[in-house]
Structure formats: C-alpha cells, structure tokens
Fold:
Amino acid sequence: MLDRYEIYDGTDLGAVYSKESTAFRLWAPSAEAVELCFYEKGDGDCLVQQVQMLRSGKGTWYYEWKGDHDGIYYTYLVTVDGVTRESGDPYAKAAGVNGIRSMVVDLTDTDPEGFREEGISWVSGMDMAHAVVTEISVRDMTADEYSGVTAPHRGKYLGLTETGTKNAEGLSTGIDYLKELGVTHVQIMPFYDFGSIDEAKPLEGQYNWGYDPVNYNVPEGSYATDPFHGKVRICECKEMIAALHRAGIGVIMDVVYNHTFNIEDCVLQKCVPDYFYRRTAAGYSDASACGNEIASDHPMVRKYILDSVKYWVSEYHIDGFRFDLMGVLDVETMQQIHDELKSTNPNILLYGEGWTGGDSVLPFEKRALKCNTKSMHGIGMFSDDMRDTVKGHVFYEKDTGFVNGSPEKGADLRFSIVGAVQHPQVDYNRYSYSNGSWASAPTDVVNYVSCHDNLTLWDKFLCSVPDGEEKELLAMNRLAAAIVFTAQGMPFFLCGEDFARTKPDGKGGCSENSFNLPVEVNRLDYGRLTKYRELNCYYRGLIAFRKEHPSLWLTTAQEVAEQLHFADTPEGVVAFTINTEQESAFVVYNATKEPQELAVPQLQSRKNGWQVFIDGDIAGTAPIRTIEKTATVKSCSCLVCCSTMLS
Ligand code: CA
Structure:
C-alpha cells in the first residue's frame, strides 16, 4: 500500500517565499482533501483565511498566494479516510510558540551581518583526524549565574555570542572559554525544535536535553529570547553560529532522525499516516526505545532527512552532524547524506551512534551500525571500545578500566589506539568487545571517554574508586584524556570534563542520566573551572599538542599498520612509536602505581633528539626537556616525546 504512493522529487516542498507570492506544496498522497489555514499569530484564536489546496501531481497538494506574506502563520487541514487533522508543515522553516503553527519566512531577513558571505565551507583541510570536538548544550554553557553572561542571555543562543565573559575569579567563560580550550568544533546537543519544554511557560523549573523532535527544520524556541515570534529563534540561532565561526569554531549539530516526540501529534503522521514510521505486525517498531522509529528507508522519508540536513548546511552553515541512534537509520540513507553533503562542503564531519536502543524490523545488514561501518564510506562511529576500555563499562558504575584499577586492559587498549583498523600487533581474538576491526580508516572513529549520557568521567571515578584521593582521581583523569588525544581517530569529550564536571543527584550520589534533572545539575559550574584550573590547562595543552603533531593525524589503515608500532611492555604499561616523514613520536601510558623506566626507541638518522612534550601533569607545545636512551614515566601518567626531521 505505502509502496504505491507516488514519489515527489521536487525541491519546493513547504512554503516557498518571495516578495511577490508564497507557494505552498505538501506531499500527502493518501489525503482526500487538504485545506490551508492562515493565522495572524502562532497561537490563539486569530484565523485570517482558509483556502482549498489542489492536487498537483505526484502526491502533492498546491496553493499559491499572491502578495508578501512574510510572518504569516499557517497549518494544513489534512483529511485521510474521512478524518481531518490540523497539522504544521513537515517542511516548516519557521514556527510559532511550541512549534504548533508553521510560519512563512523571508530568510534573507534573518542573517547576521556577513553571514551569507562567509560561505558554507569556511574552514579548510578538515577531516576527523584533524578535528577536536567538545560536546556542549546551548543551555548548559551559560546558565550558571556566575558565568558572567548577562542575565537575559543566560542559557540562550545569545549567551554564546557574548565575548569577554569571566567567572568570579576572572577566568574566561562561555565562548571565550571554548576558544581558549582550542577545540576545532563544538557538537551542540539538540537545538532543532523539540517538544519536552513548554516554550509558553517560564523556563524556571523546566529542563530537558531535547531528544524529542517536533520540527526538524526549525530552531528550538526555548533557547530564544522570544519563542512566540517565529523569526527571533532563527536570527538568534544564526547569531550563535556566526559567533562560534568568528571564534574559529565549527558547529556540529546533534540530530535525531531516528524517532519523533510521539506518533499521534507528529506532523509527519498527520499528513501521511503510517508512512514515516516502521511498523510491525502488532504495531510500531521501536528501535529508538522512545515508542517509535523513523522509516528512513522509505523513499520520501529518505528524501525528507536528506532535504533537512542539506537545509541546515545551506541556511545555517552547519559544519557537521552527529546522528543520534544512527543504527536505526539505514546504510543507504547515510551514504546518500555523505555523498550529497560532501559535494557541497568537503570539510563536513559526519558521525553518529552506531547502535540502536532496541530491536528493529530493519534487516541487520541494512542498519547503520558500528559493525557495518565498512559498508559505508565517510561515516564515523563513536568508539564504545575506547570509552569502556579506558574507564570501565558505561552501565556498571563500579566496573573499572585501564586507568582506574584494571591495568591489565592495556592489551585491549591497542585496539583503540590504532583507531579500530586492522593492525598486525592487535590481538583481535583476545579482544572480545568488538568482533574484529570495524573501521576502514581512523577517520571512521570518534574516540571518547565521556559524553552527555551516563556518568561524567569524574563521577565515574568517584563511583568506581570510592576510596581514591582526589590527586589520584586527577591522575586517572589526565591519563584517560591523554589516551583520547594521542590515539588515532577523532578526539571528543563532554565539555567540562576538563574541570572535573560532576552531576550530583542530590542524594549523595551521581546522576547517570540527567536528561530532565534541574539545570543546576546539568549546567557548567564555572566555579569548578577555577578549582580544577590545572586539569583544564592540561587539556588545553593536550589539544594544542595534538594540533601541532602530524603523527596523530594518520588517515588510512595502511599508514597506521605501517607507521605505528607497539613496544613490548610490562602489564599496565602501553608504549608505541609512530614514524611519519615529518616526525617520530613515542607515547607511553603507565597505568601502574609505580614509575616505569623504559628504553626509548633508537632514533632514525636525520632527526633531532627526543623532546618531551607531555609528562606528569604537564602537556603542551613547548618541549619540557630532552631524553636519550631511557624514559622514566611517573605512576598513572602519560609521557610523549617527539623527534622532528632536521631541515
Ligand atoms: Ca520546542
């Protein structure tokens, strides 16, 4: 039945605005009738006009309204099987409060100064080996009353446009803090229009991460200073992106194309019942564990997702996408996303969660899962291998990893250091977490030890090493970070990991899922930035070091297999050399409780001596000292030395 729907391949779905007229086109092949309702505002009793739409071929309905209608709100009345439902536009570019009514918008009106001119590929030479990403949320970044951000902008898009903001001790906060960190990109948690915050009510007492899409192509209203007028959220969201770009930071958008807030109220369901969701014999398939899953493999759903990501790139200059529960989406859709987006922006970054939240009706081999990475090209995956090997299993709070009590996991760590590609010195039989190498290249891999989900890294240490002294936990934290930043693949971390971010649950423990807990639990506490300043400086040093050293940016499996060599080491110690044309690097991770003395590799001719850049609690781009023959690596620490080609 659904297969018989005609496919529309035009680019004019939704409301296409010009000063002379606005043309509305809706794909609703199963509808018997569609009417358009125009409203003066996004809410309340203010109907202006109601008109019939006419069938216009390939399952679409069409109406053109002469005149300049910038700012008019509208809905569709869609009648299917005798039942009429009022729906927003699936292709809405603007919406009123809570995203219920769509809005016609003149987008040329919404650009910050110079935004259109910067172009959509303003950064060059970017791939996942060169990127350094931290995960932020609009609200968490500036909600702290001590962030120094002006009160009306705290927790809003505009909070991230304020420069010169400081905490009580004078340390940079907000966008300046991000710039000083040195990251190349931020991954921003959902900022499309989501459903779990009531935008019409004050935000006090409300908090949600927003993994519940309502309007895929409209920015969230609760992050705007005025959620009622459809243009404000667009302007302010673009201001945020423009400010980040001015700071030299790319924007990766966290997108949730795997499910919607619910089925009944979703515009996709109201316009074309049951087309956008995967069904089982008994009801709806639920691989998202949120009650439904999007049928990305249906042609008009695939088109919808493709049109959406293309729109965010062209209109908002988004520099990359992080796909939530990407395993719910299908391999073909992900490949088409890659191919289309790369053709317009060769520097775009694309990666996601290579798993599902539950079982799906989609055949296993068609799911964009981590184990199917090699059947796609240019789609990266979060490495749960790295995450759990370094600090213990994510679901068992007492479980420990290499840095916090299980030094024997050093042999397993090799799998992650090589970026999950095939390497002659990795024992894939011994390593049981993944079924062999899953990446074609290190650029398929996102290395991380913490993200918004589960315990923060600091809280994981608090829970798994309850008797640990703070200085021991700090050493574990440094070693975990050093591993992420010196492994092959793209380093990623939850913002605030660099100042021991914690999410106390209010009952003496730590929250492992804070999606709807108060903002006080979720927001960045800039007081900790002062308290853990040394840790923050260590992260900044790691990032700066990584950005200067090409041995950490290998982009092919062949380079990794040929240029990265592990040394024989005792249990709890991992050491390897990377030899590239420009430099050699020698990296040691010591997870034991004693200092370790290791022989340093023989230097190739035409290179200068070994210079130490990372040692103990110091990391950076300035050499700390030189070493010959042997290196002493302090307990629970990382040592990195490099030797460059003599010119
Ligand atoms: Ca919303």
Summary: The mean pLDDT is 96.
